[in-house]
Amino acid sequence: MDGILPLWKTRGMTSHDCVFQLRKILGTKKVGHTGTLDPEVEGVLPICIGKATRIAEYVTDAGKTYVGEVTFGYTTTTEDQTGEIVEQQDIQPNSISLESIEQAVKELTGVIDQTPPMYSAVKVNGKRLYEYARKGEVVERPTRTVTIYSFSLLTPLTFHEDTKTASLSFEVACSKGTYIRTLAVMLGEKLGLLSHMSKLVRTKSATFTKEDCVTLEYLKAEKDNNQDLTRYLLPLERGISHLPKWEISDTVAEKVRNGAVLEAFREWPKGEDLVRFNYQGKTIALYEQHTSKEGMWKPRKVIPSF
Questions:
Q1: pTM
Q2: Per the database record, which ranges form the Pseudouridine synthase II N-terminal domain (predicted)?
Q3: In Å, how far are 76, 140, 179, 193, 194 from 73, measured between CA atoms?
Q4: N or C: which end of the chain has fewer CB within 10 A?
Q5: pLDDT confidence of residue 141
């Protein structure tokens, strides 16, 4: 059983929960996810099965798209709706202009720096940040650089008279490592307002969308009906289609399978750091530029043929 299973993760489950259950449903131990999705977030979670686990990190690198909601008026310990309120302010009708929001969104598009929230899985001195946070400890967090490919508003700003807050929906396409809840807080900071992320759904991961996905409940029902679950697995090539592809001959394929260092071909893709070698329709290896031998390429990952 080898391939990628696009899973629609429901709220209330961790990514590890999904992997654990899939191991039982599929009857295989080689199962790995492609990037943690918070328990209260639903959405696309590609799962690598069997030999496809070898390319899980590259599926993660392909980027993700989210639809979410930011609420202005208070901050929380977790930067989202699950945390305790830290600070509040009343938002008055007509106090936030559309022009100021659009300008803030524009400033947060492109390459930006983020500081991961305390309630996150980032490791500092060998411990997860959430382990410090649960003990009430605050530690210095490393700033990371991420890319926001697009950031757009989906709904007008809505004021809530009962809570003296305001909210709007947005869509973001971003690189790996981006914290959308931190982005929601940063948007508020740009406007001089307290804010947090109040809703989030991951709508795309690599090339996988909701239309590609199945749920755990559906898979369980299919198994109970003795259906062939392998039909829900997609080729690993779907997960790395963002990488440049190079079709190779029988002779080169034999060298690649043995992990040979190769001289760059004359028509080699320019400006690329990682290339996938395809042989007879299958990706059999990922090659990268050699760090010490100019004009040579070495294998980063050799993938046994299915």
A1: 0.89
A2: 23-180
A3: 10, 26, 20, 7, 5
A4: C
A5: 73
